[in-house]
């Protein structure tokens, strides 16, 4: 009875947990405990992964589970980001997480069904986001530890842009509540990463950028679990094949 009640009100449970994690994150950052603040990023990923596995009872798309796993591992290793080798490993895990999402969504999109209006709108959005990512990569160039570190930042940024393009196309083709939530999840991830870099390198906005990044991260995780809980027709379900 209690289990059914929790599952029925999973949105409220997730929202409360997200707010607690956000408040705790802001608190430890305010106390300048940056080690714990970074560690909490990984905790956020693994907490929502735990909720996903609990709610879906092993019936969830394995690719989405793998995404949360690798994204969480990347967040854990980033605690020691100032060391070149660990920074590279963190970025590799982050890239793998994004590529897993691309693998999941790519079979569910079709470029043949794109009309001229959507192509124009998509072009504007992709160019705008591409410009933001270009500026971000250019600004971080002088702060990278090695050429491999910089290359991974560049490749990771490009993969995020590809994922955003596919998410928009996925939503356009299916136009359901689930597809919209997934697209919002992807863009929340994108801007969480952008604001995380802005806050880390202290480019602008001070601590506000750090808190916005954590808020967007938790929002993205909340949206992902919500997407997984929504009933979907077979045609809009993301691919579950790893290879």
UniProtKB/TrEMBL annotation:
Coiled coil: none annotated. The chain crosses the membrane at residues 12-29, 35-55, 62-81, 87-106, 118-138, 150-173, 180-199, 211-230. Keywords: Membrane, Transmembrane, Transmembrane helix. This is YhhN-like protein. It comes from Ulvibacter litoralis.
């Amino acid at each position: 009875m209690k289990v059914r009640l929790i599952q029925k009100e999973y949105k409220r449970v997730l929202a409360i947990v997200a707010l607690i994690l956000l408040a705790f994150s802001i608190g430890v950052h305010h106390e300048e405990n940056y080690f714990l603040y970074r560690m909490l990023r990984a905790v956020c990923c693994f907490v929502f992964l735990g909720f996903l596995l609990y709610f879906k009872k092993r019936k969830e798309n394995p690719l989405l589970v793998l995404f949360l796993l690798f994204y969480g591992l990347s967040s854990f290793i980033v605690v020691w980001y100032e060391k070149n080798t660990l920074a590279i490993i963190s970025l590799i895990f982050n890239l793998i997480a994004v590529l897993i999402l691309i693998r999941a969504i790519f079979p569910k999109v079709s470029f043949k069904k794109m009309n001229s209006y959507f192509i124009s709108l998509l072009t504007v959005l992709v160019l705008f986001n591409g410009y933001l990512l270009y500026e971000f990569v250019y600004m971080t160039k002088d702060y990278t530890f090695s050429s491999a570190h910089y290359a991974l930042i560049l490749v990771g940024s490009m993969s995020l842009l590809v994922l955003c393009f596919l998410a928009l196309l996925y939503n356009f083709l299916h136009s359901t509540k689930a597809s919209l939530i997934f697209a919002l999840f992807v863009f929340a991830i994108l801007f969480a990463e952008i604001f995380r870099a802005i806050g880390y390198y202290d480019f602008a906005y001070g601590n506000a950028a750090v808190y916005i990044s954590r808020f967007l991260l938790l929002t993205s995780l909340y949206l992902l679990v919500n997407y997984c809980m929504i009933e979907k027709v077979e045609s809009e379900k993301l691919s579950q094949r790893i290879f």
